[in-house]
Amino acid sequence: MEFIKTPKVENVRLVEQNTRNSIEGTLYLTASHLIFIDTFKNETWLVHTHIHSIDKPSMVQGGCALKLRCKTFQVLVFFISQERDCHDLYSSLLKLSKPETVEDLYAFSFNPRSTQLQQQEGWDLFTLNNHFLQMGLPTRYWKISRINNEFGLCETYPKVLCVPSLATPALMMGSAAFRSKRRLPVLSYLHKNGAVIVRCSQPMAGLNSRSIEDEAYVDLIRRSKAGNQDFMYIVDTRPMINAVANRAQGKGYENTDFYENIKYLFLGIDNIHVMRTSLNKLLEACEDTSCTMSNWLEAVNSSGWLRHVHNVLQVSRFIAQAVEVEGRSVLVHCSDGWDRTAQTCALASIMLNSHYRTIDGFLGIVQKEWLHFGHKFTDRCGHIDGDSREMSPVFTQFIDAVWQLMRLYPSAFQFNETLLFDLHDHVFSCQFGTFLGNCAKERQEYSLPARTYSLWGWMMKRHESYTNPLYKANVEQQESLFPPTTPHFVRFWVKMYNRHNKGLLPRQDISPSVTNFNSITEGLKNKVMELKRQKQQLQV
């Protein structure tokens, strides 16, 4: 509250995004939200942590402008009559939108009614141990290890790991010592044919370094399948030039002279800095309403965003096909194994297993690949005041890639766009404790289950609103999804990046009509079955 200089400003005009229409009202500033109430008593609420940037242009006719760009792709422009009030709001929002510590975030003060959500709800929904059990682990070749129970092996990994059954503690410690951030290879996905997806970080190979333990450990992964594989893939998701540059810093990639029976592939997903710049260019195109159609298409294309989404999907497709079609195990890494690795391992799992295309399964794979295995949400999402170069829309890009699959296979997913919107927006809202912190160890140190509420508990109460009416369960041909390789199948997601521009969106949601149609169809099918039964009885 000490940052709030002016809690209430009257006679404020809000200009609608991409229009010249405006409406007058009163602006309120609280410890967690900016609230605008217009003359018709309509309320616009904006949680401070959704604010990405704040601009205060020069004075214009009608007042001083305050322009807010949000992480949900909303743009709000307020015109305030008094320059002093505008400056006070500007300085207050700069502080409120970038708290100094994680414990200053909204989640630690959010307190819903107990009838809406209990604090313990959702925290134990997607435990890693249960996830491994659902995959049929442990097996003859894979065991569940608690060697990291005190985070002594790797600080950014979870307490529970799945590793080759023949891996000794000494071998695991040696492999961890040779990997960036000590993120040794651990199981991500076990296919029914015995092939696996394993994730890790880059080796500390430098120009000539090697690790006998890491080489033996990787070979154990290759041999951890019935009818031992003659080779396995190592997929480096980075462009080759990036990996080569890392060798000069003592890192790099596996030397095929030392790692036997592997095929090494660089698959060229660009780094976090390229992705950050790409999304910024895309949003600039979305915000510019004065350009012609050809100029807009050129701006979207030159942003590179759709090409990057396509690349992520293609790498994931290669991993999935290698596992299912070839029956090959795949070891996946990028630099530190928490950005591109999380994207591709999660997407490959979704392509391979229909369970991850259900509501519970999808949220479970997000919990496992992104939360348990340490994606840096605090840094990448800019939850607190820090190094802006660490921010990057890695998770946004993953959500976009999932939507591309949903659009291609509309009956294969149990959930709809609304789930993706809520998930994306609440990663940034910091209203719940689920996505706070950079790894499991940090979340334990903050005692989040005891001090904050779980997003999973909140979302489980909205199960019905997330259901896709076109979903068909247990359809054999949809067991595995392999998206096309041609680039033109990737589309610009209007309802994500322009969803606050009402003029571009459909005026009516067709979901209720589709649900009603499905209900009528199901009733008719049941009636046909009943008539057939009656016919058989008459014939007897």
TrEMBL record:
<dbReference type="GO" id="GO:0046856">
    <property type="term" value="P:phosphatidylinositol dephosphorylation"/>
</dbReference>
<feature type="active site" description="Phosphocysteine intermediate">
    <location>
        <position position="334"/>
    </location>
</feature>
<dbReference type="InterPro" id="IPR000387">
    <property type="entry name" value="Tyr_Pase_dom"/>
</dbReference>
<dbReference type="GO" id="GO:0012505">
    <property type="term" value="C:endomembrane system"/>
</dbReference>
<dbReference type="GO" id="GO:0005737">
    <property type="term" value="C:cytoplasm"/>
</dbReference>
<feature type="binding site">
    <location>
        <begin position="271"/>
        <end position="272"/>
    </location>
    <ligand>
        <name>substrate</name>
    </ligand>
</feature>
<dbReference type="GO" id="GO:0106018">
    <property type="term" value="F:phosphatidylinositol-3,5-bisphosphate phosphatase activity"/>
</dbReference>
<dbReference type="InterPro" id="IPR010569">
    <property type="entry name" value="Myotubularin-like_Pase_dom"/>
</dbReference>
<feature type="binding site">
    <location>
        <begin position="334"/>
        <end position="340"/>
    </location>
    <ligand>
        <name>substrate</name>
    </ligand>
</feature>
<dbReference type="Pfam" id="PF06602">
    <property type="entry name" value="Myotub-related"/>
</dbReference>
<feature type="domain" description="Tyrosine specific protein phosphatases">
    <location>
        <begin position="310"/>
        <end position="360"/>
    </location>
</feature>
<keyword id="KW-0378">Hydrolase</keyword>
<protein>
    <submittedName>
        <fullName>Uncharacterized protein</fullName>
    </submittedName>
</protein>
<dbReference type="GO" id="GO:0004438">
    <property type="term" value="F:phosphatidylinositol-3-phosphate phosphatase activity"/>
</dbReference>
<feature type="domain" description="Myotubularin phosphatase">
    <location>
        <begin position="122"/>
        <end position="497"/>
    </location>
</feature>
<dbReference type="InterPro" id="IPR029021">
    <property type="entry name" value="Prot-tyrosine_phosphatase-like"/>
</dbReference>
<dbReference type="InterPro" id="IPR011993">
    <property type="entry name" value="PH-like_dom_sf"/>
</dbReference>
<dbReference type="InterPro" id="IPR016130">
    <property type="entry name" value="Tyr_Pase_AS"/>
</dbReference>
<dbReference type="InterPro" id="IPR030564">
    <property type="entry name" value="Myotubularin"/>
</dbReference>
<keyword id="KW-0963">Cytoplasm</keyword>
<dbReference type="InterPro" id="IPR003595">
    <property type="entry name" value="Tyr_Pase_cat"/>
</dbReference>
<dbReference type="InterPro" id="IPR048994">
    <property type="entry name" value="PH-GRAM_MTMR6-9"/>
</dbReference>
<dbReference type="Pfam" id="PF21098">
    <property type="entry name" value="PH-GRAM_MTMR6-like"/>
</dbReference>
<comment type="similarity">
    <text>Belongs to the protein-tyrosine phosphatase family. Non-receptor class myotubularin subfamily.</text>
</comment>
<keyword id="KW-0443">Lipid metabolism</keyword>
